[in-house]
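JOB MANIFEST
job_type = single_chain_structure
chain_count = 1
residues = 260
[input]
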Amino acid sequence: MVNIEDILKDGMITLITPVQGGLTKEVHLAEYRGERYILRRCNGNADRLVRVSEGMRGTGVVPKLLERRKGDLLYEFIEGRDLTYDDVDLAYEVGRIAGLATKIPPSDCPDVDGKFFKSLRYLVEQEIVDPETGKRILEEYARLKPDQMESSKEVGDLIPGNFRISDSGVFLVDIDSVYTDLKGNCFAKAFLKWFKPLECRREFLRGYEEFADSGFLTRDYLQFVYLNFLVRKTCAWHKRGTNYRRHLDRLNFLLKGDLE
């Protein structure tokens, strides 16, 4: 049986640099006695990742958590290849995983309003958004906001690089991409960035509905999810010094009523 202590002591451990997404410096490939594993050396988030792993245990769509030593988590290595944005034919399988994630009880209550207003204020102060547009965004936020906002566990970072396909099917390999957020947040990246064609969106939704009720996803609510996502992402990407303009362009399309 594998022993994490032996791997930490005598294994070959190499940092994995992602092709997509941010570099957390947590994810490593561990090789020991001819076997490969994923070693996650957590920066204070080990408890959350364990809860997600345990919450999705037995579903067959996430790597098995083999052992833990304090902040070090040892997972099985999934053979195969990472998904790409060309894998639109896997919308149903990815949707199933997004639906399964919502079955994990949310562990905290995110301040959706606070994050949104803070991000918008930053965009106005940095003159990324002019004051008049900022006012229109606030008006649209108030118009679209539901009377009762709910949170749930979401595959919030729903990008192809966090998924892997093997002979056994499609796996969500980046457990860290599951966290508590605005209910339905997974649909922002799914629909705006990956599964853009209508038929692909229908397949994603069909997979999601195997495990989660999508009755909340009215057109106005989807626009509300988009608005939250685009304001927060435009802010985050500008702070990183990366290309934020595609998010800003989508935000302008939304304000014109042209973002579906």
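[summary]
The CA atoms of residues 123 and 129 lie 5 Å apart.
The two ends are 51 Å apart (CA to CA).
exit_status = 0
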